[in-house]
Amino acid sequence: MTPFDGNPIAPEIAAFLAQSHRLLIDGQWVEGSGSHVTSDPATGLPLATFAIGGAAEVDAAVKAARRAFEGPWGRLTAAERTRLLFRVAELLDQRAALFTELDIVDNGMPRFISELTVANCVEMTDYYAGAVMRIEGTTTPPPRHLAALGEALTYTLREPVGVGGMIIPWNSPLAMAILKLAPALAAGCTLVVKPSEETPLTALALGQVLLDAGLPPGVVNVVNGFGADAGAAIAAHPGIDKVAFTGSTATGRRIVEAALGNLKKVSLELGGKSPVVVMPDADLAEAIPGVAMATYFLQGQNCMAGTRIFAHAAIHDQLVEGLKAFSEAMVLGHGLNPATQQGPLISATQLARVKSHIESALAEGATLVTGGQSPDRPGHFLQPTIFTDTRPNMRIQREEIFGPVMAIERFETDDLDAIATRANDSIYGLSGSVWTRDLSTAHRLVRRIHSGHVSINCHGAVGTNIPFGGTRQSGWGREFGREGLDAWLETKAVTAKL
Ligand code: ADP
Hints:
This protein is an alpha/beta fold.
C-alpha cells in the first residue's frame, strides 16, 4: 500500500504532516505529557505524531484563558474583535487547500465534502465576525417602587459567559471546531479546545491561523488528548464557565455529570436517528439520490444521518430499486481522489461497531438488499448498505449506527398522525426529512415530527444562520445563527435610581 493510495499531496501539506505537533497554550506551542500517532483511515498507514495533554495541561490552558479573558481580550472593543474575526476568516480562506486536505487525510472524508466544509467554515466565521457589533441589550421600564421615588433607569447588558471548554468529535473536525469557536469568540469568551484524538490536525492548523491573525495569547488554547483525560478534565474544571460538546449521547451524559461540580453551563449536540418519510407522490428522481446521501453523507458518520427510511407502499419497491442502483454505483476510495464519493470509516473500532449492527439486523430478520461487506482493500471501508423489512423493535431501527447503513420500513397508511407516530418512535430528535410534492402534506407532517430540524425534499439542509440542535436525547441548546451566539452570552440587568 502506498501512502495516500498513490494520490499526490501538496509539498506544504506533506511538510505540515511531518512537523512535530504540540499543544497551544498561552500563545505558545508547548510539549504535552505524552504523544499519540494517528493513521490515515483510507490506508491504515501512520499519518502524524502529536503531543497529548491531560489534567495538568488543561489546567494551564484554563489559567491562560482566564488571564486573557480578564486582560487583553476582555479589553478589546467590539470593533477590534470584529476585525480580528474577519482576519481569521480571511486566513482560513487563504489556507483552504491545507484545511481541505488535512481533514481528508485525518478523517477520510471525500474531497467534495471537505471543500464544502472549508467554504462553510469561512462563511460561518464571517457571519459571527459581523455579528459582534450587533450584540445589544434592551431598556425596560424600571421597577414600580423605584419609579415611585423619582427617575430611574433599567437596561440589560449582554456579556460573555467567560472561559469556555470545547470538546470536539472526529466526524467533521474543522467544522465542529469552527461552529463553536466563531460564536464564542464573537461573544467575547476565551477557550480551551480539545479536538478528537482521532483527528487533531485541522484544529492545530486553526491554532496557527488564530496566532497569525493576531489574537492575544491564551484566547484560544488547543489541548489534544484523550476523552477520559483531557476531555474529562475540561468537563470537570472549576475554572471553566461553559462546556460545549458534540459527540455521542453516552459521552454527553458523562460530561453533564462531570459538569455538576461547578454547575457550568453545558451545551450538547448528540446522537440522532433521523426519520426520512417518503410519501406516495414524492418525486423519486430527486428522492433517490437525496435519500441515499441523507444516509451516506460523511460515510454515515453524521449525527443528522437519515437512517430510518419510511417508504409508502405505493413507491416502496421503486425507491428501493433506485437506492440499490445508486448505492452500487458509489465510488469508494481515498478522499484525496476527486472521483471518490465515499471514503472509509474513521477506525477499525468504528467499522467493527457498524458491522455488529449489520449482523444484528440479519439475525433479527431484516432483508439485506445490497452491501454489508468491506471491499478487498486496506482501510476501514464498508460498502453502502441497505436493509428492508425492518421492524420498529429491531436494533437497527433504534440505535444510532454512524455508518453507511440504511433501514427501510414500508408503511401503508395515508394518515399523517400514524406516520408521525412511527417517525417519532425514537429517543432522539435531531433531524429528519419529508419527501412529497404536496405542500400541505409536507408542512402538516413537519409539525408532527419531534425534531430540532426537518427538511422538505432535501435532508440535513443546515446552514450558518439556521439554528441547529436537538430535542429529546439529541442534546441541549442550539448552535448556528443568532441562537448560537446567544448561547455564549449572559444577560446582566442593571437598575439605577437617578
Ligand atoms: P466516539 O465514541 O464516537 O469517539 P465520543 O462522543 O466519545 O465519540 O467523542 C467525542 C469527543 O468526546 C472526543 O473529543 C472524545 O475525546 C471526547 N470524550 C470521550 N470521552 C469523554 C469523557 N469522558 N469526557 C470528556 N470528553 C470525552
